[in-house]
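User: Just a sanity check before I run the rest of the batch. Below are the structure tokens for the first item. I only need the designed sequence back.
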């Protein structure tokens, strides 16, 4: 037997509402209600018919479990699902940031290695600070402003 998910993936909207309802152990009207409430958002076929993915079916099973076993109302379930989605996005962001940090650490480590015939391991560190004043310049507000009020008193410093 060929598994539909192997061919299309867990997010492919392939199940009509009656099949999705049967897979989730619910009545099709319940799925319509969850769609109206925004708890699950199935894809749509060209004729506007709902098409559910395996991920949607798994979410419906989770909604049913939270409702029946945990006694959580639909508003609470919707909020739980939103928070879980947010956590997934944050985890993905942390994963990417950790990869960027590791790449930056490797780049710094490579710079710190002694070059052929060069002095070993010295890192030259320079810091440049630029201060931008986004407010109107004092000489534009008050033509008689003091000389140190404008951008002349700001600039690059190196240390």
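Assistant: Here's the designed sequence for the first item:
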């Amino acid at each position: 037997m060929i598994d539909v998910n192997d061919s299309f993936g867990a997010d492919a909207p392939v199940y009509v509402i009656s099949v999705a309802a049967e897979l989730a152990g619910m009545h099709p009207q319940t799925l319509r209600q969850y769609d109206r409430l925004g708890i699950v958002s199935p894809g749509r076929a060209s004729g506007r018919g709902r098409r559910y993915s395996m991920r949607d079916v798994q979410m419906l099973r989770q909604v049913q479990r939270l409702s029946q076993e945990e006694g959580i109302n639909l508003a609470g379930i919707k909020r739980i699902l939103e928070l879980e989605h947010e956590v997934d996005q944050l985890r993905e962001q942390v994963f990417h940031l950790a990869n960027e940090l590791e790449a930056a650490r490797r780049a710094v480590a490579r710079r710190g290695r002694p070059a052929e015939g060069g002095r070993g391991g010295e890192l030259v560190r320079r810091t440049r600070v630029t201060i931008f004043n986004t407010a109107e310049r004092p000489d534009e507000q008050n033509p008689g402003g003091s000389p140190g009020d404008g951008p002349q008193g700001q600039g690059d410093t190196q240390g």
